[in-house]
Amino acid sequence: MKWRFLLFFFMALSATVPGKAQVLQAEVGVNGLTCSQCSRNVEMELRKLAFVQKVDMNLEHTSGVVLFKRGSRVSVAELAQAVVNAGFSTRYIRLTFDFKAIRPGRKCFTVGQDVFYFLQPLPAQHPEKMTFQVIGKGLLPKKALKQFVLTPAGDCRAKEKFYLKAI
Fold first, then answer.
1. pTM of the predicted model, to two decimals?
2. Assuming Cys at both sites, which of 42, 52, 155, 156 could form a disulfide with 86, CB separation 3.0 to 4.6 Å?
């Protein structure tokens, strides 16, 4: 009887604890990149972030791929602010997550000070690594942001709220 109670208690507890995920990399679309110096300025601002391991900018596609240090606390807000600090704005941010610790059916999960809400529930059968477009203020042009209904759902709490759209 006692073991049943403990089993039930831990199952209930695990259902209320937010899931964790590791952010592996980001693709950042940058508005206004027209020359190699512009691209270099964005790259240098991104490299200043403590959680960034490597940055590869692509002037032709006006975007960059940012690899993160393993186990670091990645901040989407800081990533977007680095682009602004370089004198540009973000067109999109796409994050690739390692979801080994995320259970299917989760509505949200936290990474550092960020909470991410799924716009569609995570399917029962999902790959360990998935890429999502991040939706939130300052991450998309205002017109593009208006197409989304952004209401938090789930038991996650964090400083910054973002929403994920599967790609």
1. 0.82
2. 42
